[in-house]
Amino acid sequence: MGILILLLIASLNFFGEDASYGPNQIALILSAAVCALIGIRLGFTWKQMQEAMVKGVSLSMGAIFILLVVGSLIGTWILGGVVPTMMYYGLQILNPAIFYTACCVICAIVAIVSGSSWTTVSTIGIALVGIAAAFGLHLGIAAGAIISGAYFGDKLSPLSDTTNLAPAMVGAELFTHIRHMLWTTVPSITVALILFTILGFAGQPAMDRSSGLEEVLRALENNYNLGVHLLIPVLAVLVLIYRKMPAFPALLIGALLGGITAMLFQQEVVIAFVGQPELPRILILLKGFWMVMFGEFVANTGNAALDELLTRGGMSGMLDTIWLIISAMMFGSAMEKTGMLRVITQKILGAARSTGSLILATLATAFGINIIAGDQYISIVIPGRMYRAEYESRGLDPRNLSRALEDSGTLTSALIPWNTCGAFMAAALGVPTLYYLPFAFFNYTNPVISAVYGFTGFTIVPLAKDGAADSDAGLPDHNPE
Q1: Given 183, 268, 365, 438, which residue has the most CB atoms within 10 angstroms?
Q2: DSSP state of 396
Q3: Domain residue ranges in the chain
Q4: Rg (CA), the chain
Q5: What is the spatial distance between Cα 89 and Cα 81, in angstroms, rounded to a whole number?
Q6: CA gap 388, 401 in Å, rounded
Q7: Residue 470 Cα to chain centre, angstroms
Q8: Would you say 296 and 75 are in contact if contact means Cβ atoms under 8 Å apart?
Q9: Cβ proximity of 418 and 376 under 8 Å
Q10: Spatial CA neighbour of 446 closest among 239, 191, 146, 98
Q11: pTM across the whole model
């Protein structure tokens, strides 16, 4: 752990905002190698260590599949005019003064309906970042608002995988778990919305809203055939997710619909992108569709700021993020195989003598595993498995544990640059993790409120004598110690 921390600090000092494009991966791989050497010294063979790393990486393959298809979705939605259309109408509807607050609310609603922060960020989120850039607003604050809203909705949605995973790991009922989370989640999002509103009214955009905004709108009008019909791929993805289709096929369908939209409505854009006018038109359209699925779309609208924003997408654009996830999972798996994670957790648990300190230990463990293992699912599964018996022996209902797991494990994952969630958010939005981290107010306010509740006993539910939860979930435990 010490070596990893030193290497990550050195990486940040040497490479700055480019640290996630290779330097951090080397730091994680070298730290995994050191961990493996310690494992061999403890009696493990290299084959056992390698198998553990391979197994750990395999656990992240679902996230990697989604990352690849999100790259294609971003590319086809830009080529097909989907993202430019959302930007165009958003620029005319949204007021810069309330933009950050609106971002948070919009993403919260979409995430509750879809059950996925990833889907929300990779669809509505990328358009909102584009609108923020056009307004000349702070992209870190905009990304923080998007992520705050997306994680609020994800956390409370019964369709969310983590919302189902946390109660399943500790033996709590799903909707009991969701209702119990309202006590920490609602105050946290309220604080976040107040802060975003203050920042919105106090902030001074860097660009001239009148002339600069008109230039962006004109560039969009001149280069794309805009219209509400181009939003069909967005609606299709939201409907598919709402109907519980898994994220990968739903996003793949969205990407294909974006490509079809480009072939039907943005033919001149596709022809300019391919750059081979001598080919038959149908072949140009098919080639452009294919190219943007795997490679970066290069915009040429005549507006430098808009070109920089729209030049992105393709599966190849996600490879650095995938590399980061693989490296992080190698390190986390080596730590788990050698028993280092278990030792750290047991040390923390040994110091947790009161209910408040036990909940704080749960929050800290989930956050620590997000840092070490680089995956939010592991940060829920491991503490849930290890602390379940301890909560029961102390007469605490399992919903207290499931809430703490989500308050920290789910929410802090987006704040770690090499975590699967942090890496994904940065790649999808085009905003570095450390740049939006200070403004993801909801994500770090929630764990603080959860810890305060633990020490005060407020909303801490005791385990009834018959093993069922105390029905009065809203009353504080007056003797939390």
Answers
A1: 365
A2: B
A3: 2-60+319-456, 63-317
A4: 23
A5: 12
A6: 7
A7: 34
A8: yes
A9: no
A10: 191
A11: 0.71
